Amino acid sequence: MAVWTASSGDLVVDRRLAFAEGYAAEGDLAAAIGILAEAMDLVPGWAAGWFRLGEWRAEAGDRAGAIAAWDRAVAADPSDMLGAGLKRDLVRTHPVAEAMPAAFVEALFDQYAAHFDTALVQSLDYRAPWLLREALAGRHWGRAMDLGCGTGLAGQVFRDAVDWLAGCDLSAAMLAQAQAKGVYDRLDKTDLATLEIGERFDLILAADVFVYLGALERITAWCAGSLTAGGTLAFTVEAEPAAPVTLRESRRFAHSRAYIDEVLTAAGFARVVVTEAVLRQDRGAPIDGFVVLAEGLAPRLDRQGDGEGFALA
Q1: pLDDT classification of 80: cutoffs 50, 70, 90
Q2: Given Cys at both, which of 135, 154, 202, 296 links 271, Cβ 3.0 to 4.6 Å?
Q3: Which residue range(s) make up the domain with 37?
Q4: What is the CATH number of the domain that holds 203?
Q5: Do residues 259 and 245 touch, judged by C-beta distance below 8 A?
Q6: What is the DSSP string of 28-90?
Q7: Rounded distance between C-alpha atoms, residue 28 and residue 46, angstroms
């Protein structure tokens, strides 16, 4: 996503960036950094310029300088549409991000929506929805929610296994692609970080979605509170062998088996089945992950007086 090509709003700075890009392409990062750093004095609020400067400084081995530039990018655009905070975390000793910025995810997938299916399935051998369906073979549900539904690949795979299907996603362009498939009963533009417990579902799907969230405590608690008695949560994550959560160079999060077990148990799931699988390919290498099924929520008496049969304690 070549976000640094956005105009600074100053023709002089734009020309200097073009010169700097030329030096960088020739391998002279010192010259490129010098030109752009000087130009940034003229447009200190230009997030894309700071983002590009951070990239070049990181490539040149100046970790502190890169972090400082990405700090300025986030300060200039607190929504962090460019994902500068994630770049910054990748070079920090102790990353602090708990999720991808919503604005970054929305912009990224709005850009890729038109050719997303082809790139993912044909080029990257993406398998998450089919792996989930295989793990749940022979079962049928009433109401289902497809979290982060994207273009609707999981919806297509699960449509004949559910009576009613909703989907939600942050990207309007992705939702338009999902709508065109005609497999959802309802689609909503929603940030997963803002979901509130209300409706109940028999099945909640999240195919290749939690990789955009580092900490999973909130979303798994929402899922537990939004499932009917006997309901199922099914999702995939990229596998991390050691640390509970790791931010990878792809700017996607990976999670350990122990962490998955811990957050699902804390959310109240009594039965958790985790299966290892290859989720997709990336630059010719397999991306190992987990296919996770969580069930067995303990029923709770209605303590809210709203007529629901069960509620979270």
Answers
A1: confident
A2: 296
A3: 3-97
A4: 3.40.50.150
A5: yes
A6: -HHHHHHHHHHHTTT-TT-HHHHHHHHHHHHHTT-HHHHHHHHHHHHHH-TT-TT-HHHHHHH
A7: 23
Q: Mean pLDDT, the chain, as a whole number?
A: 87
Residues paired with residue 277 on neighbouring β-strands, in sequence order: 289
Phi, psi of 265 (to 5 degrees): -65, -45
pLDDT tier, 301 (very low <50, low <70, confident <90, very high otherwise): very low
Q: Does a structural domain hold residue 307?
A: no
- Per-residue pLDDT at 114: 74
Q: In this predicted model, what pLDDT tens digit does every residue of 85-98 receive, in sequence order?
A: 888 878 875 555 66
Assess whether 118 and 255 both reside in one domain: yes
Query: One-letter amino acid identity for 58?
Result: A
- Residues 40, 67 within the same domain: yes
Whether residue 152 is found in the same domain as residue 234 = yes
Q: Answer whether 165's CB lies under 8 Å from 155's CB.
A: yes
In angstroms, the Cα distances linking 114 to 30, 157, 172 are 38, 19, 12
Q: How confident is the model at residue 37 (pLDDT cuts 50, 70, 90)?
A: very high
Q: 25 with 88, same domain?
A: yes
**pLDDT at residue 199 greater than cutoff 80:** yes
Asked if residue 309 belongs to a domain, the reply is no
Q: How many domains does the chain have?
A: 2
pLDDT at 249 over 90: no
pLDDT for residue 311: 40
Would residue 275 count as lying in a domain? yes
Same domain, 78 and 131: no
Calpha distance 237→291 (Å, rounded):
7
Of the two residues 202 and 247, the one the predictor is more confident about is: 202
d(CA 217, CA 207): 17
Does residue 16 form part of some domain?
yes
Residues 286 and 296: their CA atoms lie apart, in Å, by 32
The residue type at 66: A
